[in-house]
Amino acid sequence: MSALLEVRDVTKRFGGLTAVNDVSFDVPQGSIVGLIGPNGAGKTTTFNLITGNYRADHGSVTFAGHALVGMKTHRIVKLGVARTFQNIRLFQQLTAVENVLSGRHCRTRAGVLGAMVRLPGHVREERAALQRALDEIEFVGLRERAMDLAKNLSYGDQRRLEIARALATDPKLVILDEPAGGMNEQETDQLVELIARIKARGITILLIEHDMSLVMRACEHVVVLEYGEKIAEGSPEAIQADPRVVEAYLGTEEV
Amino acid sequence: MKPRLLLGLVAALAVLAAAPLALDAYWIDVLNSVGLYALLALSLNVILGDAGLFNMGHAAFYAVGAYTTAILSTRLNLPVLWTLPLAGLAAALFAALVARPVIHLRGDYLLIVTIGMGEIVRIALVNDVFGLTGGANGIFGIPRPVLFGHRIRTPAEFYYLIWAFVLVTIFLFHRLERSRFGRALTYLREDPVAAEGSGVDTVSYKLAAFVLGAAWAGMAGTLFAAKMTIISPESFSFWESVVVFLMVILGGAGSIPGVILGAVLVVALPEAFRGFANARMLVFGLVMMVMMVFRTQGLWPLRRPRFRERDLPPARATEALSETAAGGVEAAR
Amino acid sequence: MEQLLLQLMNGLAVGGIYALIALGYTMVYGVLKLINFAHGDLFTYGGYLGLTLLTSFALQGRLGALGAIAVLTVMVMGLVGLMGVVLERAAYRPLRESPRLSAVVSALGGSIFLQNMLMLVYGARFQVYPEGLLPQTTIGLFGIQVPLVRILVVLASVVMMTALYLFVQKTKIGTAVRAAAIDQGAARLMGIDVNKVVSLVFLVGPALGGAAGLLVGLYYGQVNFTMGWTYGMKAFTAAILGGIGNIPGAMLGGFLLGVIEALGAAYLSVAWKDAIAFGVLILILIVRPTGLLGERVAEKV
Q1: Nearest 5°: phi and psi at A71?
Q2: Would you state the CATH architecture of domain C2-287?
Q3: What is the ipTM of this complex?
Q4: CB–CB of C99 and B120 under 8 A?
Q5: Cβ B249–C275 below 8 Å, yes or no?
Q6: Which CATH number fits domain A1-80+171-255: 1.10.10.10, 3.40.50.300, 1.10.443.10, 1.10.3720.10?
Q7: Could you read off the pLDDT of B17-62 as tens digits, one per residue?
Q8: Res C158 pLDDT > 80
Q9: Distance CA A61, CA A55 (A)
Q10: A48 to chain C: which residues are within 8 Å by CB?
Q11: C298 neighbourhood in chain A, CB within 8 Å
Q12: End-to-end CA, chain A
């Protein structure tokens, strides 16, 4: 039985720098997989290769049987792969609702004509989209801030809003790029709980994180990258004990 | 709609409808000019204001529409109003063709390319391309439009035709703003990477913005051709594009009332102050610089947000979401 | 064959002028990532100021042709350079932190303002330069008679460009300019006064443009307030062709465009001459936006 996401021998070069080198891993349906590694290891680049923001020079990415390499990002989203960004890319000047509503775009159909003429079918569609956006905002716990401008939300709230936007696209796989970035301990706890609730909806999760406590608590399987290559893979406990991983993060111990 | 707003709109419409009765032919014609420019500004607003694409060759779309009407009505004797949709279509096709290869270019590069395209169109018109455009002298003898058997001839008659079109345009574009299409343009304007990452096909929507804006400019071209009965390449120079661009920026990019205000100011003020007619462009240049330093958002900017709190339905329990997740795609369809 | 060579010389002469103007665009773009639309108008001011200074001070009579041109060049370059610095302070510096569109619109506004100011002051008709300033002789080159002026124009352009290139590559200030062009923030951290660098760029670029304007006035014998628009667009095309932000690129692009245009006008069609430059521009931006000598810059997501 093939995994929901299969990354095989993926390679990406930028000029003389090989950012990602022959990386392979699986993300089974319904699991929570973490991608960790020191800064510059190629984690976000790998994500970008999956989501179509970069095109792999070599290798393949297969999602539910579809080959993703070479596909445009919006088509990948429509297939069911949603993401959040490391540097938070919300529409800062728009409200939280409008941000999450953008996720519904690929699941609705109205065009120019529908907009101008306001056929009843399209009105229904709009209302349903709005409802769904609010539901997702409620799901991540931001209902009272639905009408606030994104730029006025706290950092932690913005991260949750991005997750709501990703969820609004009806994904089968959600890719979170450092979702705990900038969060304090309490917010991180809430995030772990949110991730569990997302899994409970039947959505598969792939995430990048630096916060080890989150990785240990939330992930079922961990893949470790260093200098663009996979150096280890396994359960969180196994990874924590792996000497290669320790060395990658901390450097060799001087005796 | 708020009662005060409704009252204001009714009053404005009343004034609009009564204006030709109170003004002489010269001023009615000024208002006709304002109307045509308002159409151009509204159409450019879709491209520049809503989608955030720097287009300074908008006069080219205007020209394509005007010349389509001129050629079809003088050579094939098609009634002018029948050429209206055809002019829009011609301009739309033209936009689709020329925008496709350059749509991915970054802001200021796109600006330069649109200037170049505008110039190429103008040069083509002057050089009598395909033997159809009449060269530097243009095309004359464009017939008047006929509506329900009545020939539209006087400035006052054109006034009602043009402004009716403007009102319809405002109505449709207002609807568009609040629709999925309008939102998509907003998303792609604010952050194209995030928009694409949310599932918006940014390339297609950028093209759609160009095509829609072009179509409307083309139809404005029909009205222009019918009103002037003579058209020549001079009316579609780079400066026309700059003037329309200025109207959008001055009034407020993305704001429908803003760009109309922009059109009114840019056309009507020089008329009111005849003295500085020569220095018109000088003042425009100065205004552009000053606006950017002191009030980038324009005189009557976009009002955000587009929803109000009471428009939002109450949130449902989280359990409902699990059901939605399974059948969510069906429900939204 | 003779026709071809003559056209080539013509193309190189015009190309040299394009190159001088293009340098202004490319230097400003390199440091500020801004297309200075008003640059073409500064070039026009060079042509007009040259004429005014020449006639007001009766330089030709007092200094003879050579002396007059030398003095004029210095005066024009200085004045137009100064205008450039003032323009930057007034219209661009306040917008350093603003979104891109603001600076672009301001630049355009500046261009419109300058151009119309010129028209109001000098009138809309062509203004003619006095005769006798440039030699009318021809010399034999590769078996044909080439007007000496054409060679002199090309020479003048090359001399100024070489001076600029050496300045940017070999002097400390020149290195500061290059540093600011690569990364403003890092340059600032290295102790480079970026504001001064920007002012310098807005002095040198427009100065060269002004010199080009003077050259046009002398070479063609007349100036017109719209020449900023045509020359400006073409010079900008040249800068893009060579690779915007790249100084040797601007030089290469200028000469190349001049030749393409001259040959195109001679062998294809004169009426579409101006369209050729625009066509080249659009083509380059579609096919190879970084230009002939430019480098690709990836965007980080």
Answers
A1: -85, 145
A2: Orthogonal Bundle (1.10)
A3: 0.90
A4: no
A5: no
A6: 3.40.50.300
A7: 888 888 888 889 999 999 999 999 999 999 999 999 999 999 999 9
A8: yes
A9: 11
A10: 301
A11: 14
A12: 47
Tens digits of per-residue pLDDT, B264-273? 998 887 777 7
Kind plus residue range of the DSSP H or E element containing B319: helix B319-332
Residue whose entry in the numeric block shows the structure tokens 């340098």:
C23
Question: Cα separation of C202 and C24, whole Å?
Answer: 8
At B246, the amino acid letter reads L
Q: Which residues of B touch A75 (CB under 8 A)?
A: 201
Q: How far apart are CA B256 and CA B38, in angstroms?
A: 10
Residue A21 has pLDDT above 60, yes or no: yes
Position with higher pLDDT, A169 vs C130 = A169
Which of B101, B284, B296 comes nearest C98 by C-beta?
B296
Measured distance CA(C103)–CA(C118) in Å, rounded? 22
Rounded to an integer, the average pLDDT of C144-149 is: 76
Cβ atoms of A33 and A221 closer than 8 Å? yes
Dist CA B229 CA B142 (whole Å)? 4
| Residue A149 per-residue DSSP state | B
What residues does each domain of chain A span? 1-80+171-255, 93-169
Please count the residues of chain B: 333
Q: Is C59 helix (H, G, I), strand (E, B) or coil?
A: helix
Q: Does B329 touch chain A (CB under 8 A)?
A: yes
Nearest CB partner across the interface for C110, out of B193, B281, B285: B285
Residues of A with Cβ-Cβ distance to B313 under 8 angstroms: 127, 130-131, 134
Give me C55's structure tokens: 């006639």
Nearest by CB to residue B286, choosing from C103, C113, C115, is: C113
Buried b (16+ CB within 10 A) or exposed e, C130-154: eeebbeeeeeeeeeeebbebbbbbb
Whether A87 shows a pLDDT value over 60: the answer reads: yes
Q: Which two tokens stand for residue A37?
A: 């590694």
